[in-house]
Amino acid sequence: MAKWRRRAAWLAAVLGAGGAAYYALVLHSPAPSSTFELDIARIRALAESLPGDQPAAARYEEVLALRFFEAMVMAGEPWRETPMPVYAYQLVFPDRTAIIDTALARVDGKPEFLGLRYDEAAYARMNAAMARASLIVITHEHMDHIGGIARHPQLAALTPALRLTAEQLANPRGMKPVKLPAEPLAGYEPLRYDGLHALAPGVVLVKAPGHTPGSQMVYVKLADGRELLFLGDVSWHDRNIDHVRERPLFMTLMLGEDRQAVLAQFQALKGLRRAEPGIGFVPGHDGPAVEALAAAGLLRAGFE
Fold it and tell me: Does residue 1 carry a pLDDT above 80?
């Protein structure tokens, strides 16, 4: 009997430790313990500070989709498969274009990583649009956002349009397995700013480190007055903001992100959405959210 009790106690301890670990790593998302400043009045003022026409349209290409599980997107969600589409965006001004994020070349991902689908034609359209663009920015330095820059066949010719930040360039480890070739970028001077930066008429960069050191959001005011906020991977899906719940801890550890910084950004974004429901939020990998914005006319499918 004593031997049985010892075994039962050992098993209970193992199960208890395993359950506690699973709760901490997969189920739990803490409450925000800090704040993030998101001053929409100041952002709007900066969007109006540069002369010239604001973008007439924002367009998108879905280049690929990864195979994920909902439990990887938000702590406490079920282990149900969900697609993670990877987008590039194009802002169309009357006399020029700008690109936000550049997806990932097929060569930089194994077939099992690329998962559900890969659209070679969309990648080719994005590559061609990058060559014509006056500005190219990325929301952060992960491979599925910077990959198109790294693999562009005319990278040296793109450098006048590139607005990579100092924080993004200082994190080559975060780009892996993508690697920016050194020679085309020799002497490249990165963008340096604190807080906010007016990039173009109607376009403002919002520094938001946390998911990566170089994370930033991109605010866009269209010529018709409507507004978009490209979140990058601050938030993978809309529901992270709605519930102020982070990715599970095992994902944040894998990504090396600052969990509390991201939670503070969720809280600020939720407050902004409540105060300004007309601003269209564009999460990093949320297909239904992008489709809803397209249905509302805030985004248009296909690059020009």
Answer: no
